Each structure stands twice: as C-alpha cells, then as structure tokens.
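Chains adopt folds. We examine one example:
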Amino acid sequence: MKIRLNKLSVMLCAALLSGSALAADDDLDEFRTKLGNEWVQVKNDRLHNMKTFVKQEDGKRFRSFKVEAVFDGTIESLMRVVLDFDHYGRWSWNVIESKMLKKVSPTEYIIYVVHDSPYGVPDRDIVLRMTIEPQTPSKNYVQFRFNALPDYIPEKPPYVRMLAEDMVARFTPMGNNKFLVTNEGYVDPGGKMAPWAINFVSRNAPYITLLGMRRQMAQDDYVNDKKPLPFYVNNNP
C-alpha cells in the first residue's frame, strides 16, 4: 500500500475531500477563470527573482506553463546538475527514481524518470529524450529540449506512463555571475487524473523545481567539479 506523503500530496488530497479548499485559497483564483492562448502570470516571487505563467492552448487537455528566473552562479554548475541523471530526486519535483537509459551522443540522451503522484493516485513514469543545443558564436544561450517517448520501453505497472512532459529550457548568460533561466512546457500525466489536479501540479511543479535546481547547483560537488563538460559553455554575455 502506498504510504508516501508530501506537502503537495496532502494539499491535493484535502482539496478532493472538500471543494471549499480551493475556494479558501486566494492564490488559486486563476482556476476559476477561463484561460486562453496568451500567457497569464500567476506568481511573481521577488525574493527569488522568479515568475511563473500559465495558458490554455487549443487542442491540449491541460495547461501549459512557463517559468522565468535569474540565477547566481555559472551555467557550468547548472549543466552538471542537469547531466547528473541519477540524482534528479535531489531537486526536481517529486522525482523518486531517475536514470540514463542511453547516451545517443554528447548532446542527446534517453532518460527514465518516476514521479511520486498525489496520495491515492498511481505514480507516473516517463521516458524522455533530452537534446542539447550548445552555445555558438551567434547564439549565446544553451537550450535543452525534453520530449516524451511513451512507447520507448514497455509500461511498468503499477506505474502509469505519462504521455507528455515536454519542455524547452534555455540558459542565457547575463554577466556579473548571473544568468537567465526560462523553462516552457506541457505535461500530460496519462491515465485518469482530475484536470484541476494536474493543472495545479503543472502550475506549482516548475516553480518548486527551479528552486531546487538553484539550491542544488550551489553544492560543492557541482561548483568544484573540474571534469570537462561534453559541450562548450560560455558564461559571458
């Protein structure tokens, strides 16, 4: 029997039991308004210099998300975090397992991730193709693309295979040991899950993940790692 609980799981479970839980939270007002194809800001965290947005694109079951943040530190440290496939659970939202399935090239990887779902909902797993677009003389940002590969390996019950966790993450140097992070994407958990629940997760998970990423990249293991990266990185704007 599943016994893992976390703060977000408890919030979702409580909301399922009582419709008043959403109404009591002024921070969820956007769930009571109709979204369109334009980004709507839902959070402006001035303390962490981070903003989040959502929109409802035509033909998609759930809302798309975007998050923007300014990080202190080097892009190299963050790249080492993203390429440390076995330890996504240290920083990414509700990850309980992660590993690389295949290295296609120095800039393309196939990875496997398991997410802890809210209490009472089966955990989700997903296979992702991660492709990296390094900086060039005419393009001074590193860009990562994540695309779901639902049929890459057989399903692994009791996990429910996610249909999408598609994202484009961009890291742009700003000078003075700072860089801009933007991450835009869409998640479809597959199986059965209340639309408001997955919308709530897609609204909060990117924000929580970037906070974790910022904390992780400051760890000595990543800051002091001198092994060369598999692609060129420039911290100067």
